[in-house]
Write a structure and sequence with these properties.
Layout: H1 3-8, H2 13-34, H3 39-50
Helix pairs in contact: 2-3
């Protein structure tokens, strides 16, 4: 079933978008949990940092705790 069919069957666009975003988050988390040290795991971790469901610090606050 295509997105066009879903929209015309009564599903709202917001529900379809939320499902897509949640699915991508679950997929990336699964990749990171299965192979955290592989190249694929590192790339998935980088993508998770950009994902809308990831926690972000408030603007202006740096979360880097490494020494200068």
């Amino acid at each position: 079933m295509t997105i066009y069919d879903l929209l015309h069957s009564g599903a709202s666009a917001a529900l379809i978008l939320a499902s897509t975003i949640a699915g991508s988050y679950v997929l990336l988390m699964t990749i990171v949990l299965i192979s955290p040290t592989s190249t694929r795991g590192r790339m998935a971790r980088d993508l998770l940092s950009l994902h809308p469901f990831s926690r972000h610090s408030p603007a202006g606050h740096d979360t880097d705790t490494s020494p200068p």
